């Protein structure tokens, strides 16, 4: 059986230490093994990145960008293979994997513009014949720790821009579906990255802690669940590093009485059940304003959900696939059970989906639960499964209060035709990414991704302009040239 | 005796709890008492800031800026009184206090431009008929914790821009010289800030910890010593807050053989001894390249230092005043003693300055120490006194290696006429603020202030553009308007 | 009788040449004389500006900005006197003059931020060890030619930012109401502008042509009517100068059936009749979509217009005052006559307003004309009087086609509650300044002002970021420092 | 014989009207014919561009950028063929043609970042609950008119960014070497540009005037000689268009006594003779400060020029090739003759170069002329040939005065090691593109290209950020949503 190794200093290798099973969630079978890097292996990767830094930092940004141009081409040429690897280990249907990859490629495209993005600020005559400018220099070795649900996209949120800015990188991807991530990293090297500029180590907590504690690592980017994000942020910060840690979500959509209901239903169906709901931007709660809107929504959703096809990743006719593990499948079903016990109304029940030929796959069918209330467990937690909750409220303000009371603040959306409602909502809601009639308001690559409240720890968001700022360190130079003929008196006061 | 209180919700008050002595360091006498806020008092200030936030946030930026315009006028009109208060409690000579104030005012001027600075990014057609924009919204309640050495300037680095961005503020200034800070905050209210927008609490660790732990405080800015900066950064981060913590420094100036030596000596004299060296940007180490440069430097410095006048703050003819406390005076003298014991050459000895009429003042005279080596205690620590060390090296690269090996990376400078030396130095040195023939390369208010390595924890610098980014939270809105005639099919894939 | 002179090199003077009457339009009487500068006088002003340029250009931007801070204070302190001067010569009621002045002051506030606005772009390593940066340097002497309708505001659109950028300025204001303009310029000098930095010449075509033809004048900003704008742009360009020339307007407001009609009527009344309609942003055409909306609009407008008070500038209870001249009064009445002859419906007739005690004032009352069609003279021309035309159409698209067919494209507005209508309108309409439920969408000072089509000639708008760009010239520096040890071979190819 | 036609609406066609000879300047023979478009043909191209505009404008910028990504790939894949076409018709050696192409490709790379570059400015709460933002919308049909000397690069300065911004384009390249330009345009279509988005018309003054006069053309970019630039700017402006017109140059290099002389000589040799001096950035005047520097320079130049190889484009071992036409060859030789007659010292004489096998080619050899003075014809005019003049002066200031007195201000350079000299020079010199030890300071694609004085007419430079601004029109939207419960009173004053 294949064992997936690490990419260190340009070479794929395996430290022959501990390994862990990698499953095909569509069949429930173990398909590969993944090596789990020990401390020494991670330190080897850090050392490779450290060694590669000086030359890479001095490479003109335009030349670094040109490798990103080539990387984009290779990603496009290898899209089918990448999507197959994602599907096999994550379970995502190919059209969805392609969407993920495309979003990742957009970040590579953004990194191609790094000469423009790195421009510093130049001020003439900050004092008489004194000039001052700010440069944005790379940090050195930076690390990324990424989740299973987007094995292609989330790493591409991080290292293309980090590397284009002149840093070198150590990536610790999810050990659940490591193959596509590793394959993509190899393409980056094929595109021309010098050895050591991008390194990948597979691993678990030991690898993570090594990255968090090693003083050579200057910054850490993390995407995952909130408890781990909090741990990462706290530990990296205690070690004096800069850190951005993105956590969980519970994304609500407000459905206003004036919404275009067919459009809202279409949007919600895709945003709630796509990728089995295993997205931090999944829309998992619909908040209907008024019983009339709620009844219309439930009725149309129910009808639409008849058409949902859950099944193996390899059949492009499916809408979504299995969840990531057996344990997670049971957890999702447990949330549905709890909702039922708490008195909610299970309108469409996905607990026993039929997927002929894939009886051991980790499937959960699309589930719609009405009359959910904020005190229910299914409402408080992030389920990360194909489950859409409906909460009924009497007013838009009540809907907004509900959203603001939740601990997460990642994404949200409102369905309406009314300009005033849209403006009031987007201005006041305590959520970082807001959609107006857009169910998955993931910012494009030239904006930045991040939630508020306990969905993100740090002050700069992921990718886009904030990514550039996160992966660079400001240096301000103030310059004057003494003229042989001009001598100044001593200046004891603070210069003004 | 006067007891200096707190400014909470627009009212100067005193919680009548613990107090601490405030000294006049020129005479060594206790001049006032300062109240030390307990947890409840700090929470009251936070509550006031929290209550003031919603209305302040919705006030148009231009109207917020106009209060800053008025604040600037009041600062200028009250400059004499501010400088007197600074001098009395800090010991700084009036011309130096005025320099400090002027630098603070520049930050108010920068805050006057906040409508421009808050501009978000607007993108048309991120998808077909879909628009997306990023807004930079205020965080809510933010806190600042500031040091004794710039009681006017450092608070003004923080709250003018924080408040102009729409936040409300709780300031915990140094308890050693609190009067000018409080007076200036009252002027800000006089300029038109609504009650609760700016609050000042005097206090010690209890007050600090309350700010770090209270969940209503969204962000913390700190300036002080590195051990405390590290504590603040770690604790604020563990509480999920954003934090920027600026610490200590050991600023080196390289003196190249081609330097304009008279200019360098003038510059060094002011930058090493001004404000008794109690500046995080003080130049405390001169690194002479070659013995010829070293000998010339020492010779000219010695001559120039004959003219130095140390004395009470109230005499504008003095060059610098006392250090802040008796304990600090002893500590500085201890460092000079240790240098002597370690074999360095005390060229000019300031351990027994004569200041007639002020025999109990906390004075240390200007001190010049030659032949210092990196292993000496006086080199490793930040002395924060009027002591200039000279290290002799053989090459520019050796000088740069020395600087890069030090734990701090705040400011540095090179004296040279050579363009290539200046570029190589500023590009490669691991220091955040670099001067070319500029001894105190404090960035102007429209750039940002920050060191590298253990001189700053966090990813954004103080004031200027980074200040705006630190005190705001990105929100990205993605908007489309459904057309009655256009219905989309369900979209299960991740949108690309 | 007072003769208003010129401000040249810091001195108000009079070349004792030709003069022209200045009227008080409220009484119809001649109140002053204004000197009309000959070629020699204008050249003297240009020479003064040229002489002042080198020192002013080298003054640090922050110091230039501080004069703008002071200028703002003086404008606020002298607001009453400025408004009185405006009212006396222009006829504008004091509350309206104050609004104009306030908008002008906003441009001074913007100019206070010039250190930030002048930041150039700095790129490290555009090639190996080669850096490049762009500076935005002032042009030298620049000229502004401004209209009668905003004697305070339009000059303040131009010279504060031009001067803050380091240019020196020659202003040729309208000869119809020159006093407030001159008074304000004197305040700018009082604020600290060195002599020669700002010069004012009153005059007519001879003065204008001198400015357009003199090779020392680097750039010309103009605001006025379209035929003159076209002349200015063409002649200045033929002389190799950069030029921005803002012309006329015919601003339409679309009233949609779903509009908040009371709000629309209030907005239209102010925007159509305020300042007697003598504004290039006046809303002069309401396009009602559907007869129902049209009838409701007409009914409510008619009622609202009963309350309109036209009268002398000195009575703050009046809504608007006289038009600028007897000739213009007759021209406006002529347009109303022509509408009547062309078959339009004069709903409210302002041709014979009663203003007791001011029988010779140049008054026209608020006029509402329904059933106007695009072929009528009153529709094709800019009337520049208190006349609101109503055109009835069947659809929003028809309304937009109408707007796009007009030669002007300055401002426009839509009244609606619908997000999609607002987006479609603002995206597609061929107009530079668009309001959504905002009747006078004059951009704030930190954005830029400009129309499309024949309302503006040039590529950069007035004031705001475009103003900064217009008044500066890009200079790009590319720098490398040869290392003694590194010699390059000859390079014959174009460097890549 | 082949006749080179036009590319209109996606189809290469020939209007079978007038034609003109295209030469191979290496052999002196006519190799092809080029069609000269009449007015009707140009109008057909404009109509095609006009028709393509609405759909192209609405294509999301990211999708437009992706065509640029593909275009870049095609340019790289077809580099050899492009260079062959350039060489054949222009005479440029392949390594030089490749340098030109590479610089062109950089502009395509820059255009790939257009989603970032098109970001507008978004302001929340410009008034209470009123938001305002600026969009940068495409203009419509824009035209480019380009010179013979860079048939690949200069068109690529213009249309990639213009098109990426959403405009459609009509290009009128030089009729002397049209093949590479046309071939590249076909690649752009192959990359995915819809028909009509990019059109190429070959032609002469009739084609140019049609572009200048047609009201559908919104903007004109021109690169060529100053007299034509002035004509273009004046006529386009008189027609109300925006225009940027780049003209001639006389680029001086100051050689300071402290210069690294070997480096300076290498740099000058390439910059003066590369591409036979037919570059608007060619260094054609060396200004030596002091006779010592002058003598050293002349001595080393003379030696270095022994190695110069002039010959046919097809031999990569040559340094440079022929000039463009027989007439131009004679003109260049005429200038050398005049210098000799005027008393200058012809140090190296290129009037009779020997190029065996290419006796009819339009060759001029590298020529070095010492002791040139500012009154000589060879100094006043742009020679545009492989001729380097040396002027001797006594001081740096004298050298700078000389440069500033010349009518052109395109590029310039200083050779020195001194930081102060570099800063003083770059700050004060009246030239748009300044090199410090960089002989051809052509800004990289992410900065902008343009000269000062009579080297550029207009206010925005070519390509880079200025290119984006030139090819877009600002639109400012101000939006508020009326709340049903909130009614405002009528507002007659100008809003403040």
Number of domains in the coordinates of chain A?
Answer: 2
Shape of chain A: globular
* Tally of contiguous helical segments of chain A: 16
- The amount of beta strand of chain A, in percent, is 15-25%
Largest interface: A-B, 93 and 93 residues
Question: How is the largest sheet of chain A built, in terms of strand order?
Answer: 15-16-17-14-13-19-20
Main sheet overview of chain A:
7 strands, mixed
**What structural category characterises the helix and strand content of chain A?**
alpha/beta
Structural commentary:
4 copies of one chain form a homotetramer. Chain A is of the alpha/beta class and 496 residues long. Chain A folds into 2 domains: 268 residues, Aldehyde Dehydrogenase, Chain A, domain 1 (3-Layer(aba) Sandwich), CATH 3.40.605; 186 residues, Aldehyde Dehydrogenase, Chain A, domain 2 (3-Layer(aba) Sandwich). Chain A contains 16 helices and 23 strands. In chain A, strands 15-16-17-14-13-19-20 form a 7-stranded mixed sheet, with helices on both faces. In chain A, helix 10 crosses helix 11. Chains in contact: A-B, A-C, A-D, B-C, B-D, C-D. Chains C and D meet through helix 4, strand 6, strand 7, helix 9 and helix 10 of C and helix 4, strand 6, strand 7, helix 9 and helix 10 of D. Strand 6 of chain A pairs antiparallel with strand 6 of chain C, so a sheet runs across the interface.
Brief summary:
Chain A is of the alpha/beta class and 496 residues long. Chain A has helices at 39-58, 61-77, 79-90, 94-112, 114-117, 153-164, 179-190, 205-213, 226-238, 261-273, 291-305, 326-341, 377-380, 396-405, 419-428, 464-470, and strands spanning 3-4, 6-8, 11-13, 18-24, 29-36, 120-127, 130-138, 141-145, 168-172, 198-200, 217-223, 242-246, 251-255, 283-289, 345-348, 367-370, 387-393, 408-409, 411-415, 433-436, 452-453, 456-457, 472-479.
